[in-house]
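@channel anyone free to eyeball this complex?
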Amino acid sequence: MDQSSNRLSLPSSPREFGFFVDGEWRGGREFFDRASPGHGAVVTRIPRCTNKDLEDAVAAARTAFEDRRWSGLSGGERAGVLLRAAEGLRRRRDEIAYWETLENGKPISQARGEIDHSIACFEMGAGAARLLHGDSFNSLGDNLFGMVLREPIGVVGLITPWNFPFLILCERVPFILASGCTIVAKPSEVTSATTLILAEVLAEAGLPAGVYNVVTGSGRTIGQAMTEHPDIDMLSFTGSTAVGRSCVRASADSNFKKLGLELGGKNPMIVFADADLDEAADGVAFGIGFNTGQCCVSGSRLMVERSIAEEFEARLADKMARIRVGDPLDERTQVGAITTEAQNTTILDYIARGQAEGARVVTGGTPLDFGGGQYIAPTLFAGVTRGMAIAQDEIFGPVLSSMPFDTMEEAIRLANDTVYGLSASVWTKNLDKALAVTRRVRAGRFWVNTMMAGGPEMPLGGFKQSGWGREAGMYGVEEYTQIKSVHIELGKRTPWIE
Ligand code: NAD
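replying in thread with the prediction:
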C-alpha cells in the first residue's frame, strides 16, 4: 500500500481551546503553544489559566456539590449520564485519538485503543454508580441497629500527567462521578486538549453544570495552588514521585485533604529458564517499548535466569530492533515520539550514563532522525549491576536494564531492590514459582506470563513510594467516598440518669 495513504495529516492551523468552568467555555487571555513532538509543528493553543480562574472553578464545583444537583441523583440517573458519555466518546473516538496523538506523540492506532479503553471505563463507572453501597450491622443486639453509609467526599482536584492524558483521566473521572463527587481537573500543560474535549462530551451527555470543570496551566502555578487549596476535599494526583511528595506537604499545611497518589515505578520483569522464551521476549519488548517506555508501569528492569541470559538477551534484542518506530500519524507505527524535549534529553543522558557506568548496549542507544520531532531507538542494556543509575532511577523512556539471577530468592530480592512498587511481571510455566514471586514481590499490579493486560474492573495503584490508594473498579469508586457510621436505637433507651 502507498505509504502516504496510511498517514493522517497535520492540522492546517493550530486549534485554539478555551477552558471550562460551571458549564461554560471561557476564553484564555494568555496561551501555551503546543508543538507536536512527532513533527515539531504547533498543533494546539491552550489557555494559561490564572489563580482567579482556579478559584472560579473550585467555587463552581463546591456549589454543584453542596446543592446536591449531582450527588442527590440516584445511582441509576448518574449511570445514565455516564452511559451517554460513553456513547459520545464512541462517536468522537477518532477525533479524540487524533488530538491525543498530536500533543503526546503516541501512535494513532494506540491512541484509538486508549479511547476504546476509556469508553469501557465510563461503562464500568455507570455500573459502579448503581452498585455503590454501604453496609449494615444487624448484630448489635435487639436495641441497636448499625448502618455504614458511603457518602461522596466532595470536591475532587484531579492533576494528570502527559504520558496517557486521556486514559489516565478516564481511569478516574467516571469513578469519581459515580461516587457523586464534583471535579476540578488540571491536565499537564503539554497535553490538555483531550481533557477539554471531555468537557464537551460530558455536557452533551447531560452532566449538570459545575460538576466537571477544567483549568489549564502549569504545575508550578495552578497545580501547586490546587494542592494547597482549602476547599478541595480530595486530590487525585498522577505524576512524578517528587511532585507527589510536595502534594503530601501541601495537604499537611492546608486542610489535610485526602490524597490519591499514583507515582513513579522501576518495574521488574522476571524471566525464568522454563518460560516460553519467545513469548517472554515479545512481552518484555512490549513492556519497555509500549508508549516509548513512558508508562508508570513500563517494565524497565529485566531479571533473567543466568543459564539462559545471553540467549534471551539476543532474542529480545532482535525483537526490539524490529519494533516499528516512526511518525505517530502513520497507521503502521508501533512506537512514536518522545513527548517532551526535556524528557528526550533525560533519556539520552541516562543512556550515556549507563555506558559510562560500564553497562553494555545490546541494541538501540541512539536518537532516530525522521526529519522532525524527537525519537529514540528502543534500547537494551546488559551487564547492569544494582548500583548503577539505570538500575535504580525511573528513566521514563525506552531503556531496559537487564540483570541475571541464579535463584528465585535472588530474583525476588533484586525485584524488591527499589523504592518503588508499582507493577511487576513474571514469566514461567511453573505455577509454584509464579505464585511465590507474585506473593513476595511488592507491587500493586502484577502480570503472570503477560504484560499490561487488564480492564477497568481491576484496581490500579502502587506499594512503597509508588503511591497511595487505588483508582478504577469498585475500589476506585470507594476511594472517593467517606464512611459514616450510623447507630439507630430501637425501642426504649436505657436512661443514664436514674
Ligand atoms: P509531573 O509530576 O511533572 O507532572 C504531573 C502533573 O503534575 C502535571 O499536570 C503537572 O503540571 C503537575 N505538576 C507539576 N508540578 C506540580 C506541583 N508542584 N504541584 C502540583 N502539580 C504539579 O510528571 P510528568 O512529568 O507529567 O509525568 C511523568 C511522571 O508521572 C513519571 O514519574 C511517571 O511515573 C508518573 N506517572 C505515574 C502514573 C501512575 O499511574 N502511577 C501514571 C502516569 C505517570
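from a first look: The chain has two domains: 15-263+466-484, 267-448.
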